[in-house]
Amino acid sequence: MFKRFRDRRKDPATRLKFQETFLSREDFILPLFIVSGRKRKEAIVSLKNISRMSIDYTIEYIKKLQEKGLRSILLFGVPDKKGIEQAYDEEGIIQTAIREIKQSLQNIEIITDVCLCSYTEDGHCHIGENDATCEILAKIALSHAKAGADVVAPSDMMDGRVYYIRKTLNEHGFVHIPILSYSAKYASNFYGPFREIAKSTPKYGDRKTYQLNYANVEEAMEEIEADIDEGATMIMIKPALSYLDIIHRAKERFTVPIYAYNVSGEYAAINFLVENHLAKEEIVYEVLLSIKRAGASKIVTYFTPWILEELDEYQSL
Length: 317
Known about the structure:
Blueprint: H1 12-18, E1 28-35, E2 41-43, E3 51-54, H2 55-66, E4 72-77, H3 93-104, E5 109-114, H4 130-147, E6 151-154, H5 161-171, E7 180-185, H6 192-198, H7 218-230, E8 234-238, H8 244-253, E9 258-262, H9 264-275, H10 282-294, E10 298-301, H11 304-314
Parallel strand pairs: 1-3, 1-4, 1-10, 4-5, 5-6, 7-8, 8-9, 9-10
Antiparallel strand pairs: 2-3
Organism: Thermospira aquatica
GO molecular function: porphobilinogen synthase activity; zinc ion binding
InterPro entries: ALAD, Aldolase_TIM
C-alpha cells in the first residue's frame, strides 16, 4: 500500500492545513538609502521601485508602510562627496536620519549599516589596514548608538570588528545596543545594483580578500562562531538564495537569531522574470518563503513593501 500525498494538496484549504512554513510581517526588514538635504528622490534604474531619498521623503515612506505592518528598517547613508569622517560625524546623514525618524515615528526599529564603502574614495570597505579600520567602524557604531539606533550592523567583514565595536559601545554605556554582524557575507556577484544605489563600486580590484569565498561552508561557520564570541547578538548571511544551505547550517548550529539578506541582484533577477512574463508574481512569495524555510529569523529584502501588501492573499483561504 502506498501513501496518497495528493490528498494533502487537493484544494487551497487542505494545502493550508498541511503548510509547514508561514511568513509574518514582522519577519521583514526594509533597506533604505538616505541622502542629505530635503525633497530629494533619486530613482535607480537597476532596482525597480527603489530610490535614494532625503530624510523627509523617507519618513513619509516609512509612515505609509507602517500602516501595512512595517516594523524594522535598515539604513544606509549615501554622501554626495566622499570622505570617511562623514561616517562617524554626529551631524552625518545617518546620525541625523536616526534622530529625525525617532522624533517623527514610533514603534519602528532602526538598524544601521556600519561600513565605509559609500564613504571611501576607492569604494572599498576598509582603509587598508584591518585593525585601523576596526577602530573607525567602532566610532561609526558609537555615533549611531548616540543618535538613537536600536541595532548596529557591521557589514565590512574585517577581522575583529565585532570585538572593537562591542568594547567601544560598552565603554560608553551602550551595553544594551545589540550587534547584528554580517558574519557570513560572501564575495558574491549579486551585489551590482546595490553598489549603484550606494555609490560603492570598487574603483579597483574586488572584495575577495575580505569577503567570504563562495565555495566555503565551514569557514562561514568559523566566522559566525568568532563573531558570537566577540559579542554579536544576531548574525547576517548575505546573499540569501545561493546560500540557503549556509542559513540552514547556521540555524542548526547556533542559537542566536539568523538574519538573511535577499540582495539587490536577486531582487533585480526576480523582477526581470515577472516583468517578462517568465514567472508569476507568486515567485516573490515562493522565494521569501524559501529563505524562512531554510532557517532565517528575519529577512532583509527590497520586496518588503510588496510582501506587506500581498501577504494575506498568499496565506489565507
